[in-house]
């Protein structure tokens, strides 16, 4: 029988960061991950850290904590995360009023600079000035997600943590109290389990009768190998339709669709963007589809064609870069930036998932979570 102080489910950036912070407190921690190839949202992330995006005292504080953590994280973990600061260029379609789009960003504590098409091209020469009415420029953090995730895990292991690649098949409980987990290989026991399973969080909880407002999109993008062309900034659309469809997913008329797994596309959106990592490789575009079946198959040929057509308009020199389409589930919470805390009606069960801006929120909240645990959970938020 293997006993742990904490069992963490999911070894993407959320689970890896949280496991590391718990192990720093001297706790015996087991980190479980079903996929050793990490075919997940961390691997297929643009790597952006939106530390400008706070809108109230709490989120502004988290933004500031996140920026401070990243500036020191490579040194703390003993491995390079490729952290840097660069320009975020939010493109505004040619048929939209730039001032109107800029007004939508005035709620953030760091305000964007509105640029004309010519000014935009001076900063990012690969942009097509004829396809935009302008850009919003913001300061942005950036990491290599896989390198950062691996750095967290290696530091966790050096602290005595355990990382096993096994699929969790059941949450073990008795009288509404967590006792551990069952995997495809064995059982592990703990009085504390925290779910960091991203897009699969909803289904793990559903098996024990808990419904939470965590949903997921099927995300598709193109990854390229190292190429010679140079992109100087992170390019994303200024109108984020993905956030609109995520907000609507929590509406009462759509909630019932999540209770019945289906391959029906409830809604979808294609966002034209690009980022080049320090190793010369690119992420291109992102298609986000809301489909309630996590195992639904996507039309990869159509998706790649759609992404490349979108990229050709805004960043024409990137349209034909060699690359391969990839797919993953991306968790989100329709009515908040994240769900972090303990589930009151199920003793020992916790959530650390549903992040709107995962790379920004996860590191500071993982640190806070570990502090709450060290203080006997007195300050930990309750999730009813």
UniProtKB/TrEMBL annotation:
Keyword list, A-Z? Oxidoreductase
Q: Which GO terms describe its molecular function?
A: oxidoreductase activity
A GO cellular-component term linked to this record? cytoplasm
Positions of the FAD dependent oxidoreductase domain: 5-372
| Listed Gene3D superfamilies | D-Amino Acid Oxidase, subunit A, domain 2, FAD/NAD(P)-binding domain
Instruction: State what protein this is by name.
Output: FAD dependent oxidoreductase
């Amino acid at each position: 029988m293997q006993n742990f102080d904490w069992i963490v489910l999911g070894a993407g950036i959320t689970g890896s960061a949280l496991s590391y912070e718990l192990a720093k407190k001297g706790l015996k921690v087991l980190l479980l991950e079903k996929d050793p190839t990490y075919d997940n949202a961390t691997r297929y992330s643009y790597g952006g850290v939106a530390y400008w995006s706070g809108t109230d005292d709490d989120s502004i504080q988290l933004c500031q904590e996140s920026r401070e953590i990243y500036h020191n994280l490579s040194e703390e973990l003993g491995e390079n995360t490729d952290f840097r600061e660069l320009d975020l260029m939010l493109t505004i379609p040619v048929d939209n009023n730039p001032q109107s789009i800029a007004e939508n960003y005035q709620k953030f504590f760091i305000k964007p600079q509105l640029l004309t098409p010519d000014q935009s091209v001076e900063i990012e020469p690969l942009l097509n000035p004829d396809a935009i009415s302008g850009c919003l420029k913001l300061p942005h953090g950036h990491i290599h997600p896989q390198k950062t995730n691996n750095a967290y895990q290696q530091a966790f292991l050096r602290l005595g943590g355990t990382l096993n690649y096994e699929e969790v098949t059941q949450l073990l409980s008795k009288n509404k109290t967590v006792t551990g987990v069952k995997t495809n290989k064995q059982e592990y026991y703990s009085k504390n389990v925290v779910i960091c399973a991203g897009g699969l969080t909803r289904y793990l909880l559903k098996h024990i009768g808990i419904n939470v407002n965590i949903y997921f999109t099927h995300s598709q993008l193109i990854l390229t190998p190292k190429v010679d062309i140079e992109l100087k900034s992170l390019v994303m659309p200024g109108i984020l339709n993905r956030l609109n469809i995520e907000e609507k997913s929590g509406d009462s008329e759509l909630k019932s669709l999540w209770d019945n797994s289906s391959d029906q596309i409830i809604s979808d959106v294609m966002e034209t963007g690009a980022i080049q990592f320090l190793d010369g490789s690119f992420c291109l575009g992102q298609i986000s589809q809301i489909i309630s079946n996590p195992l639904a198959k996507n039309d990869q040929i159509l998706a790649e064609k759609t992404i490349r057509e979108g990229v050709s308009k805004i960043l024409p020199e990137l349209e034909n870069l060699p690359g391969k389409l990839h797919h993953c589930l991306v968790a989100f919470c329709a009515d908040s930036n994240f769900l972090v805390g303990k589930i009151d009606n199920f003793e020992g069960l916790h959530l650390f998932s549903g992040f709107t801006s995962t790379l920004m929120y996860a590191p500071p909240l993982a640190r806070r979570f570990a502090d709450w645990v060290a203080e006997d959970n007195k300050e930990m938020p309750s999730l009813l």
